[in-house]
Amino acid sequence: MNEPQRRTPLFEQHKALAGRIVPFAGYELPVQYSGVTEEHNAVRRAVGLFDVSHMGELTLDGPLAATTLDRIVAGSASKLAVGTAFYTVACNESGTILDDLIIYRLAPESFLVVCNAGNRAKIAAHFAACVGSACAFVDRSDDYALLALQGPNAVAVLRALGADQLAQLPRFGVARGAVAGVELLVARTGYTGEDGFELFVAPDRAGELFEKLIEAGKPHGLLPIGLGARDTLRLEARMMLYGNDIDETTTPFEAGISYTVDLSKGDFIGKAALVAAKERGPARKLVGIEMTGRGIARHGYPVLGSTDGGFLAPIGVVTSGAPGLTVGKNIALAYVTSPFARVGTTIAVEIRGKSIDAVVVKTPFYKRKA
């Protein structure tokens, strides 16, 4: 039997704005409001507001919180300065990815971990088992609503609501404060490739904050943004989607995110396997693809490469693909065997039984100007 879909604290706001609601990660969420292209362009050129309250939030507190986190995740939480965040992964003993995470150090002995919505139960159980009695661990996902304010005008919107100090946070900075009189936690992080902020707020204040941001953002071109544009934005920026681009069959080295792993620190879950994987080198790599023939590469489509005999043979699979609305090209991410991973390599994608020309390109496909 299918589990009933949950609703975020902003469900009524989505309905009032005529958002088209779809099921996603166990929630009813808007896939679009005015349209994917218009919403995508608003984030690139002005500012957009997302409801990402479905994400999971876990907290670890106590004198051993940092060292405990260091044993669970591949990055070094103990090196993180108070008021900053970093991107990392949690791996299993085989060195493959349980989830990708953002970890925020709120105080010397206090950490907030944001995990993917679809992995919340898995990661919460994993952390609880690993933490034991070493420190206080709580799954606080239901205690937060989460809004993402993203785009070049995000700073202007926060300032319009009197949050000048929060608007000056550095990239990956995090601080407590207030926006339009609403107490919250603000981080300069996001999933779009643009500048912006993520706002952690009590569920009973989320609707008020959402509406104030919408109103204050109107002069700055703000639009509410759905899941459709969230996906095209993150793909252009080569930000991965768990379950598509990474999962428990992929290592950080295959996925091209070796920077999330600190092999110089002490032992952690999956370290031995990751050391061995790094020494071997990845047999396949996640690469960017640009379609040179007519067609859109979609998740699951086979990727083909030329053999010595001149024939096309399977060399991998597309993990994410869509029109690149900013770059003006059809783009995709795909795992291919390492000999075909070099930028400039000519390949093909099988689309409805036909081989459509493509080329391996440098990623990210889009990078904002500083």
Characteristics:
about 375 residues; alpha+beta; Gyrase A, domain 2; Elongation Factor Tu (Ef-tu), domain 3
Description of the molecule:
By secondary structure, the protein is of the alpha+beta class. It has three domains: 6-53 and 144-236, Gyrase A, domain 2 (2-Layer Sandwich); 56-132, Aminomethyltransferase beta-barrel domains (Alpha-Beta Plaits, 2-Layer Sandwich), CATH 3.30.70; 283-361, Aminomethyltransferase beta-barrel domains (Elongation Factor Tu (Ef-tu), domain 3), CATH 2.40.30.110. The chain is built from nine helices and 20 strands. It has a six-stranded mixed beta sheet, with helices on both faces. Strands 15-18-17-16-19-20 form a six-stranded antiparallel barrel. The protein has a five-stranded antiparallel beta sheet with strand order 6-7-8-5-9, with helices on one face. The longest helix has 15 residues, at 203-217. The radius of gyration is 21 Å and the shape is globular. The termini are far apart. The mean pLDDT is 97.
Poorly predicted regions are none
Residue share in helices?
10-25%
Strand order of the largest sheet: 11-12-13-10-4-14
Give the biggest beta sheet. Answer: 6 strands, mixed
What is the level-2 CATH architecture name of the largest domain?
2-Layer Sandwich
| H/E topology pattern | EHEEHEEHEEEHEEHHEEEHEHHEEEEEE
Number of helices: 9
The average pLDDT value, as a whole number, equals: 97
Q: Nearest-angstrom radius of gyration?
A: 21 Å
Residue share in β-strands: 35-45%
Number of strands: 20
Structural class: alpha+beta
- The shape, in one word, is globular
CATH level 3 topology of the largest domain: Gyrase A, domain 2
**CATH level-four homologous superfamily name of the largest domain:** Probable tRNA modification gtpase trme, domain 1
